[in-house]
Specification:
The chain has 13 helices and no strands. The chain is mostly helical and about 300 residues long. Helix 1 crosses helix 3, helix 4 crosses helix 7 and helix 11 crosses helix 12.
Length: about 300
């Protein structure tokens, strides 16, 4: 289990050194993790993984200042874990921050192939199919409503039953963050347990992008999933998710925890069990009686075992 992502204080000492390139050779202009000596490459890969977790759980579309701050944060974290201290060069910073679009694109690619079957789009190219797809798209997105309540997020899109439980969403959670016992949702439980509002909003936004490809009734393969086009939609989803949580905070947290627990179980990982605080229950009464007996007994010097 990895605990993400607290910037260590006092963990690193001495002046940072420049990360060495592989075999001392200066690489080309396009940065790659493999440009560096193997131990530095490993640090870069680990930092990229931590950065992708922040995209999934803290802010799906961070601004440039946040991206740079996160790059420093994850680089400090992995260097501390390796008991070394390398400079965060511009080249490495770019490798890390570029993982934001990669993380969103990877989730998109997990969801996109299942849209047709899950929601019932018709891809035979006929005019009849186009009419069907247009109506379905508008119904799923609730496009005709003054205050839309998108149906695609519900388990039952007709009755809007079970918020955030559509099969495509639950399957995407498992595929993206709980694919196996070493997946991000398992390695970074503090970021995923319970499932966060940011994560849910990112899922909703990604599904909406995939649905938007059908906005004209036929599949538009040229539509791209960019920050410019979808950050606003993500913020709308995030606001709605947070409204949902405020309706009954404890119940919402229970549901989000249950989603995490089920995804974790599906990964094959052992259950996440919190250690109980304080004394074991079986010891409490025995020690309570012992305390009372010792307090009632005459004072004696038993420091030497007498």
């Amino acid at each position: 289990m990895v605990v993400l992502l607290q910037t260590p204080t006092g963990a690193l000492s001495g002046a940072p050194t420049t990360p060495p390139f592989k075999e001392g050779r200066t690489p080309g202009t396009k940065p790659k993790a493999g440009d560096y000596e193997p131990h530095v490459t490993k640090l870069i890969i680990n930092a990229c993984h931590e950065y992708e977790v922040l995209i999934a759980t803290d802010n799906a579309f961070p601004d440039p200042a946040t991206q740079n701050a996160w790059a420093t944060r994850v680089w400090t974290s992995v260097c501390s874990g390796a008991h070394t201290f390398y400079k965060l060069t511009d080249r490495i910073e770019k490798l890390i921050t570029d993982r934001g679009s990669h993380a969103r694109g990877e989730l998109r690619d997990k969801i996109r192939p299942h849209i047709v079957k899950n929601y019932g789009f018709n891809d035979d190219g006929s005019e009849r199919a186009k009419v069907h797809n247009l109506a379905l798209y508008h119904r799923l997105l609730d496009r005709d409503a003054e205050s839309p309540d998108p149906a695609f997020i519900y388990k039952n899109v007709e009755t809007r039953y079970k918020y955030a439980h559509n099969a495509i969403i639950l399957d995407a959670i498992k595929a993206e963050w709980f694919a196996d016992a070493n997946a991000p949702g398992i390695r970074y439980p503090s970021q995923f347990s319970p499932l966060r509002d940011v994560t849910i909003a990112l899922l909703f936004t990604t599904v909406e992008y995939c649905l938007d490809r059908w906005a004209n009734g036929s599949l538009n393969k040229s539509l791209t999933f960019t920050q410019k086009a979808y950050e606003g939609k993500y913020l709308e989803h995030l606001a709605r998710v947070r409204d949902w949580v405020t309706l009954a905070p404890e119940s919402a947290q229970t549901i989000c925890q249950r989603i995490y627990d089920r995804a974790r179980k599906a990964s094959g990982a052992t259950p996440l069990i919190s250690r109980p605080a304080g004394l074991p229950e079986e010891a409490r009464e025995r020690l309570r009686q012992e305390l009372a007996a010792q307090a009632a007994a005459p004072d004696s010097d038993d420091e030497n075992g007498s």
